Structures are given as structure tokens and as C-alpha cells.
Amino acid sequence: MNTFISCDWGTSAFRLRLIDANTKEVLATIKTDWGIAAVYNDWNNNHPATDRLQFYSNILADGVRALAQECKHALEDITIVISGMASSSIGMMDLPYKALPFHLDGADVLTEVVSSLPNFHHQLLFISGAKTREDVMRGEETKLLGCDVSNQQEKQLLILPGTHTKHVVVEDKVAVDFKTYMTGELFSLLSTKSVLAASVEKGEKGQENDNKAFFLKGVTEAANNNFLNSIFHVRTYHLFNYHSPHQSYQYLSGLLIGNELKELLNKKYSSITLVATGVLAPLYRQALQALGIQINKETDADEALIAGQCKMYLQMKKQQF
């Protein structure tokens, strides 16, 4: 079987998957909270004398052992394909960004191969990020590589929701521009660290649909009103008993996502693809529909990541042999 280990190493989470490269099937998976930020802080504060690459590889080794236990199969010497923050200034190694444009066939994506390390006999394939003059991404470029994008000349838009949501413009299977929106991070800050924190409360899982109307209210209000004024309504609507804390939580979410997406009302694209997973997928779908913006295609973000890593892994093997 032609397998590799997929490593999705973000700022706050660490995930390994055993992948069949021919079918893109996930054979086993493990996830921990050992994101890049936590690992870097541990290394920088407690183990600065240890070689950085070796220190991070020890975390990888622990993960590989856990994955081997999960799949009940030895995983010695198997290649690990790494995307996300592992190639950043706080990651295993700091790789430069690929300046746009970049082709979605992966031909000009920046990668780095590390053959092996002492006591860690796995070949590592790092996939680096991309940049414009004003913006950067790490991790999303791999998802773009895994998206089935048409080769039409007209501008297409791909929306990748997250802590820092990306809007990527593609022409003829080439990423030519993108913008970052700090929607997720700003939501976290406002809902936990600001004066609005006392007015919002996350509902139980599965209750989101009960307060859908308040989410959509936030979306439409954001599209028509000043954002800085609207977010204060989270406090006043709770103060006047117009909204419960659960309803205000959804309302604030709608305000932020609506404020991000309203820019699309004045732009034209030949198609719009939503690349999302988890709770963000239905929220962005509902928000786009509420604004009258047509989604032409939806792609699961996790599947796109795996497909992108498969593409780069198979290209590396072809070049090596």
C-alpha cells in the first residue's frame, strides 16, 4: 500500500493521519492540543539548548507512536507530509513564502525535504506558505492544491473560513490574489475579552438551529449598518432583554461573518467555492445565502487538505524515482 503520514500542524492543534495516497482514504487519525505555539513556547522557555528541529521531531515521534497504536501497524520509515505552521518562524524550520501567483497543480509550490534526523528515521516533506505584498497564508495553500478548480479564464473565488479566513482569487488554475479576514480571532476576542463577554454565552451543541434567526439577523444588520456601531448592540440588546446570551452569541457571530462577506456584494466572480468543515460550513453557507450570494460549489476542507498533501507526496516520489 502506498501510504504516508499527513501532519496538519496548526497554531493551536496537532493532527496526524495515516493516508492511502492512491485513494486518499484516511486509515487512522490522532489529534492533540500540542499546536505549534505551545511547542515553541516549551522549547524556547524550557529547552533552548536543544536543537530546534530535533525537539520538534520528538513531538512528531510521540504522535507517530500514538498513530501506530491507533492503526495497530508499524509505521517506521514512512514519509511525513507537513503543512501549516510547522514551516513558520515558530515552527520546526522557517521556510520562505511563495510569492503569488502559484499554480494549483503544485508545480511551483515551495517545499523542503529533510531526509532523516537522529533517532527519527522518517523523511519529512514540508509544504511552505504563500504571500502577496500585503498578506500571508500557511496551511491554506495546501487546501487550495486539493480543490478541484476549473481552468476557466474568468476570476473564481474560494472562501476558506477559519480563525483567519482567506478569500482566494483563482484564474485558469492559478492563485493570483487573496485577502485575510480576522473573523474568527476577532469573534473570540469580543466574546471572551471585551465588554460584550458578559452578554454572550455559547449554547449546547446542537442548539445552533434554535437561534439561527439571530445569526441571520446579525448577517443582514452587518450588511447594512456600521460594524462598530452594530457590535455594541450585542450589549444593549441583552441589557434590554431583547436577546438571551445564547441568542446574542449567534447574533455576534452573524455580525462578524456578515461584515466579512458584504464586500462580495460589489464584486463579480464566475464561481464561488466554499472550502469549509465543521460548524463554520453551515454558518458561511447560511450567511452567503442570506446576502443573496450564490455558492457554486462546496468542498470539505479536511478532504482538500488531504488531497493537496497527496498531490505533493506523489510529485516528490516521482521526482525521486
From TrEMBL:
The keyword Phosphoprotein does not apply. GO terms for biological process: D-galactonate catabolic process. InterPro entries: DGOK (IPR007729), DGOK_C (IPR042257), DGOK_N (IPR042258). The keyword Transferase applies. Gene3D superfamilies: 2-keto-3-deoxy-galactonokinase, C-terminal domain, 2-keto-3-deoxy-galactonokinase, substrate binding domain. Keywords: Kinase, Transferase. GO terms for molecular function: 2-dehydro-3-deoxygalactonokinase activity. This is 2-dehydro-3-deoxygalactonokinase.
